[in-house]
Design goal:
α3 links the parallel β3 and β4. Helix content is 22%, strand content 28%. The protein has five helices and seven strands, in the order βαβαβαβαβαββ. It is globular and about 40 Å long. A five-stranded mixed barrel has the order 2-3-4-5-7. The chain has 173 residues and is an alpha/beta fold.
Length: 173
């Protein structure tokens, strides 16, 4: 198991291959389609983004509310294809790693290769177990979106598999 510390740099990305198992420790951000749409609108309006995308990880998830004393409820991946129309722009703005489930479009794969990024697959159906890797969680943007708000998570040993590496090698093809 390869440990990745966020923010993730090009050296770490270049050392990974499609099929590698990784664990992420550090800050990651949740965002789904509604949040992606709002982030793209902010970029187009040259407004401030909810977080600096350089070297960051976005997890396509809409976590359930926390039950004390846990910082978050269940948190599992959602289908990544819904973010494909937004992802190339976000990747060009510095986003390095995306986590979700399912294949990605040709445009997203090309952006991953061009900007040296990764797409990681998280295992669906184990949302309660994934939640145990979350040490803290807070909404940082678009609270009105409820579970689709952008959240900053502090994770420790969050498990994933490299589905698409920076060379474009793809587990799904």
């Amino acid at each position: 198991m390869i440990v990745l510390q966020t923010p993730i740099n090009d050296e770490a990305i270049g050392s990974l291959n499609s099929g590698d198992a990784v664990c992420i420790t550090g800050k990651i951000y949740t965002a789904r389609d509604a949040a992606h749409k709002k982030i793209v609108e902010l970029i187009e309006a040259s407004e401030r983004l909810p977080f600096d995308f350089d070297g960051q990880v976005v997890f396509y998830a809409g976590p359930t509310p926390a039950k004390p004393p846990r910082p978050i409820g269940c948190i599992g991946p959602t289908t990544s294809g819904r973010m494909d129309k937004y992802s190339p722009l976000l990747i060009s703005k510095g986003l390095k790693v995306m986590i979700g489930k399912g294949n990605r479009s040709r445009e997203v794969i090309e952006a991953i290769v061009k900007h040296r990024g990764l797409y990681l697959a998280a295992i669906g159906g184990v949302a309660a177990l994934m939640a145990k890797t979350v040490k803290s969680a807070k909404v940082i943007a678009f609270e009105e979106l409820g579970t689709e708000a952008v959240m900053e998570l502090e994770v420790e040993n969050f498990p994933a598999i490299v589905a698409i590496d920076c060379q474009g090698n793809n587990l799904y093809s």
